Amino acid sequence: MKTKLVRYEIDLANLPPLTEAQKAELDALAAMPDEAIDYSDIPPLTEAFWDNAVRGGFYRPTKTSTTVRIDSDVLAWLRSQGRGYQTRINAILRRAMLASRKDR
After folding, report:
1. 78 belongs to a structural domain
2. Distance between CA atoms of 28 and 36, rounded to whole angstroms?
3. What is the pLDDT at residue 104?
4. Number of structural domains, the chain?
5. In a domain, 60, yes or no
6. Is pLDDT above 80 for 42?
7. pLDDT tier at 45 (50, 70, 90 boundaries)?
């Protein structure tokens, strides 16, 4: 069975120019005061929403391989907790990093 597949490639650094209608629409939106914006289709953000919010839930940092010297007893303790000791090391370091950022 033959399918018709259409592919488009867009060069974000070299976008086509806006039409006059698009420019007029953008100008009208930019001139609109905030009070005229209709937010009725957006639910209000209550305290309950923020209680359950997760910061950076989709953020996935890159990993870098490194060699670190750790005290033997600390490494034994981490490994005694089962698989994933390197992930636990990273989590401990991340908590310390975030706590130090809050102190500033």
Report:
1. yes
2. 12
3. 65
4. 1
5. no
6. yes
7. confident
